[in-house]
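Hey L., structure's done. Input below.
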Amino acid sequence: MSDRFGEIAAFVEVARQLSFVRAAEQLDVNVSAVSRAVAALEARLGVRLLQRSTRRVGLSEAGRAHFARCEALLAELAEAEAATSERASALGGSLRASVPSGFGLTHLAPMLPEFLRRHPRLTLELEMSNRFVDLIEEGYDVAIRVGTLRDSRLAARKLGANRRVLVAAPGYLAGRAPLRHPRELAEHPCLVLDIGVHPDVWPLVSRDARHSARVSGPLRSNHVLAVRAAAAAGLGIALLPTFALAESLADGSLVRVLPRWQTPEQGIYAVYPTHRLIPAKVRAFVDFIEARLRGARAE
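Output:
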């Protein structure tokens, strides 16, 4: 790893991992080779890029600036090589993906037969759960996430937008006074989708107005379909993502409550490890989902 490209690759991986050992594992070389490459780069530039101690590795001010430029350079080179090498190759192999269970069952599952028919040499290993998998440590190629992104090590591509809205069964609302403000939710049994830091606090907006409603009720579940089923059965009011409600609103089993109020917009993202070459199979999977989400919005 004595060449200039090897020095840059070693530095970028250490900066991403904040560890010489993990960087060496990702680059499939020994730790001493990574250390020599980074030291050679620092000597050539005449500046310290990494702050080292017995316990941790950190970036210096010069290192942060150089890392941003080098990472962009490597990403551009990887994209160029991928575009060239993959034009003549059919999609094949295994694609490991993780998606939230609610989004996966209501939105992604109906799309999968078409995607797999298009790419018969591809095997899709799909985990549907609300667990935030560690893509790098667990070897996932891509994950779909809804909401705030937490891991700065990952590259992200926004595929669409989503909000949560208040819904209930017509039978539950029958005979009850119409709700006029979210503060009245405290008087109703509410069905809590147990995802996020404070799932029983519902942040709602209506134009410039905001209200955080603290709710409680007979059900807390991290599965959107369980909450949706309980709402349709008339057990209370639920705050659910729009991607899980299209059929229920269309067939009338659920109706909007306080329709002028909803949560702030959240993004739907595809995320993947930054240190890997983005394969054609990942791009094809992400492109396919984005196109279907765009088509659903247009309907």
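The chain has a mean pLDDT of 87. The first helix runs from residue 4 to 17.

-- N.
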